[in-house]
């Protein structure tokens, strides 16, 4: 097998590609927790490490909130040792699979569902880590009639852009929020949403 530190290195490889994002922890129970966040659109990763061990070690019920988060799906990958034994040298898994020197690693993401109002909950057992992946849903531009010679454009996130030619160039439209009403009496104009 692989030395236990190798699992930690692999865990950071799984959830550590992209730009580092700020993350704050509200920890009223003063648990020994650490969190890291990385964005690599369309994925956002938060790694939560529960460093509690020994007698009195506690499982963390973590509630994560993403500010200005697009809708998306949530999945997790856990790094765990058999019996949550901090001294374990075998029985360690990442994504439910062991890492060996002679076969490809077969760790899997566990689907948790959909991000609701930018929030979700996850349990992080003591002496373990959980990598949380939020995959943003593709942005959709919705168009509907809004009265005589008007259309309403709506989108969940991103920046509205327009162009006079379907091939572009497209430019950001400043000071516009969803939903936005446009006049259909304008010259030929095309719209899209740039994922932010």
Task: Explain what you see.
The chain is mainly beta and 196 residues long. The strands form four sheets. Strands 1, 2, 3, 5, 6, 7 and 9 form a seven-stranded antiparallel sheet that branches. It has one helix and 15 strands; from the N terminus they run H-E-E-E-E-E-E-E-E-E-E-E-E-E-E-E. The relative contact order is 0.19. The protein is elongated, with a radius of gyration of 22 Å. 6% of the residues lie in helices and 42% in strands.
Throw out a few tags for this protein:
7-stranded antiparallel β-sheet, elongated, mainly beta, 15 strands, 196 residues
**Mean pLDDT level:** 89
Largest sheet: 7 strands, antiparallel
Succession of helices and strands: HEEEEEEEEEEEEEEE
Helix content: under 10%
Percent range for β-strand residues: 35-45%
Number of strands: 15
Give the terminus-to-terminus CA distance.
42 Å
What class would the helix/strand composition place it in?
Answer: mainly beta
Low-confidence stretches: none
Q: What is the 3D shape?
A: elongated
Count the DSSP helices: 1
User: What is the radius of gyration?
Assistant: 22 Å
